[in-house]
Every structure is written in C-alpha cells, then in structure tokens.
Amino acid sequence: MEKAGKKAFAFYTGISLLSVLLIISVSLGFYSLVYAQNIPKIGADKPPIVSSDVAKAMNDAMVAASEAVKPTVVAINVETKSISQGSNMPGFEEFFKFFGMPDESPQERRGRGAGSGVIISEDGYIVTNNHVVEDAMEDGIKVVTVDQKEHKAKLIGRDPLTDLAVIKIEGDGYPVCHFANIDDVKIGQFVIAVGNPLGLNFTVTSGIVSAIGRGALGMKRDPYAVENFIQTDAPINPGNSGGGLFDISGSLIGINTAIATQTGSYIGYGFAIPIDLVRSVVLDLIDDGKINRGYVGVVISTVDEVAAKNVGLSEVQGVMVNDVVKDSPAEKSGIEIGDVILEIDGKSINTSNQLQSVVAQKRVGDKINITIWRDKKKITKTVKLESRDGEDLSESSSGAKGDSDNTAKNEPVSFDKLGFSVAPLTSEQKKEYDVKNGVFITNVKRYSYAQDRGLYPNGVITKVDRKDLTSTSQLQKLLDSKKAGETVMFQVKYKERNQIVALEIQ
Hints:
Elements: H1 2-36, H2 53-69, E1 73-85, H3 93-98, E2 106-119, E3 125-128, H4 130-133, E4 136-144, E5 150-159, E6 164-169, E7 178-179, E8 190-195, E9 203-214, E10 229-232, E11 244-247, E12 251-260, E13 269-274, H5 275-288, E14 294-295, E15 298-302, H6 305-311, E16 319-324, H7 329-333, E17 340-344, E18 347-348, H8 352-360, E19 367-374, E20 377-384, E21 386-387, E22 413-415, E23 420-424, H9 427-433, E24 439-444, H10 449-452, E25 460-464, E26 467-468, H11 472-480, E27 487-493, E28 498-504
C-alpha cells in the first residue's frame, strides 16, 4: 500500500511539472509573438539590381588577381644610419649655443624606413626601389612575407638612375610574379597596386593606366636619370614604394616608385617603372651587383611643332640633339647638334624619356642603329655604346672656323616682336663661353614668346639654322628675311650646356 502511494505521488508530481512547463512554453510563445510584432523588419529581401554576367566576371577577375599576386609581394623594413654634425654631450646643446661655440662633433643617427618589394625568383630574389634600401645599415633589411614570416635580407645591388634595387632572402620555393609584356600595356586598362602603404601590410588598390611614357618629372637631378613611367590612378601612398602594379591577369607591369603630391600622400596619381626596364636592370644587378649600362652622349629634348616645322618634318616626331658630349660615342659616330633622332634599332622615338629608357636597357659594347633627320633627309648612324665616367657633360666649342663677317655692322639689336635683345660678343665673353663666334643674348622679356620657347639671357647664339652666326646684323638680316609663320632655329651656348631653341616668326 505504501509502495502504491509513492508511485501515485511520483505520477502526479510528473504531471504537475509537465503542466507547468507547457504553460510557460505557451506563455513565452505568446509573448514572443506579441513582441515580434513590435520589431521592425530590417534589410530588403533581395539586392536592388542583378549584376550582369560581364560585371560579375570583371569582379571575379579582380578578386582572383588580387588573391593570386598578394603572396608575391613583401613588406620591407629598413634600419638606417647616418652621420650628422651635433653634440655628443646630450644636455649641453644650449651651453654651446650660449657661448657661440660650433658644435661639430659627428653624431650617429638611426632611423627606420619601410617599403614594399616583389619576389622575382623562387630562391628569394626581390625587386624594390633604390630609395627604400639605399641608406640601410648592414644587416638592416628585413622582409615580411604574406604568411607573416620575417626574413633577413641581403642587398644585391642598386641603380639610382632608375630607382631600382635587388635584395635577397634565404630559402626556396617562394611564389614568383609573372612579368607582363610591356607592349600589351594600354592606357585605360584596369590595374591593381599591391604594397604596404602607411604600415597597412598587403593592401590592394585598383585603378587604370592613366598614361604611358610619362617623364620629365624632375625626380632626379642627374641628367642621365631615367624617367619613363606608367602613370596610374590606383591609390599609392608612402610604403607602396617598390610594390607591384599588376594587370587583371596577375602579371607584373611595373614597380611603383613615386606619387604626384603636394601633401606627401596620394592626391590622384602614382608612377611605376615599366616592366621592360625592370627586367633589364634586375638581370644586371643579379649578374654582378652593378649596372653595365652604356651611354650615347647626347643632351636631348622632345621635338615640338615649331621645331618640327623648322627642320622640315612632315609631322611632330623625334627628339632634338641639343648637345653632344666631347669624345662620346655620339660624337665618334658623327651625330651633331641639331640632328633629330627618329628611331633606335627601328623603334620610333618620340620623347626624350623614351630614348633614355631604350638606351638604359642596353649594355656597354652594344651597337645600336640611330636614324636621324638632318638637312631634310634620314641618315642612319651606328653607335657603339661606352661606359659613362667622369663628368656627365663636357663643354665643346661651336666648331666655327673664325669670324667670317668681321666687316658686318655689329651693334646691339632688339627683336621686340619675339621679345629678346642681342649684342656683339666681347673677347672676354668668347673666352668665358669657349666660343669663336656668335652674338650675346643680353635680355629676354618676361612673358615674351622667346621666353615661352625656352630662350634665356646670358647665352651665346652660335648658329642659326645650322649656319655659323658672326654678327648681330647677320642675325637681323636673317630674321627680316623670314615671313610670318616661318621658323628659325638657334643653337645657344650657355655656360653649363648647349640648347636648341626654335622660334616661329611673329
């Protein structure tokens, strides 16, 4: 009887608990339903548009390219060391200043820099910018790969003229970038830039190729510096230097090197060294750690409409030879001031930076065929490239045989329509400028046509239309004989350079 009572108690207790749970569940469900009715629905049921197959394919291509190239890009951290003048007695700077004593003790200063690089071989060769590693201490270069592993890097070689350098990390089996064909790179094509801007490692940005063959940016003071960049609007910032610019196939088309900026950060455009030049330089550096680059020995400028008209070209093309270095390969091959270089080895040359880039890929001892325009006809000269040593430019005389017009009237003359004035050469000026004939440019008016064309005072006009100039009256007679719209070309000797200036008669 007692056993039966216990069973009945357990049974009714279980029933009671189930009832309570059921009531709670129903209550919660009811309140949840009521509560849910008071929560607004967020988010639409479907996207506002359905992407086209073309858009999806483009998006997929960008994603795939980004994922594929990221492992070939590295972050570079550099420890730098420099020596500066300063006190080696911290805390005594004001003491030296108060007593007017020079504080000239050398001080070692250390700093840190950062940049990017691209792996170009499975055994760890990496291309980067020269300016990223040029001040690195010995054993001061470290590389971080995409797997976050840190590697010590060795400097293999640098080339300041192209702003390229090669470093190497130990190991094997690294992912390697694919080099594009520079001839396939077109303005308007999509590109991605990969690097480590502002310490944000392995950042990908995108844009298009904005221009090709961009030069004359004045980044280097050396007249032989090579500036022939791919311009892009893919955002590039400090730290991107040495990183890669890739097409949507994942092929490397250039090494990011600089930005157009007034703030120090990206404001619209960046510049990359084209892959054909990169390939040539890195092969030289890997071979023996230095550049075995040949040079021609000319100072050049891009031909414009007025210059083309003056020399009789049917279209604006080529580069003008403003100066020829004494005893250079150019002089030895017979290239002259006033020649227009049209082709090198059959490849058209239309800008000075393009010519620099082509020659920069050649080695000492190479022979190149240069097609020039002289006296309204094409001439081909074979130039054997030599190494460049000593001074970049040598002054050379005008080559005149002497004053052939001593009896001509020779007094100051002003050409008001063109905006400049000349005077006879003095014997002192002939010695100072190392010339035998010509007229001295005494003044060029501000905002004048002559100034716009690049004519400046304190120079000697030695030739006009490739003929020796001996007096101011000769120049006046020649200019007076020209009709409006016709052109004239001056060869001008300044102390530091020769210059070709073409003017259109006003």
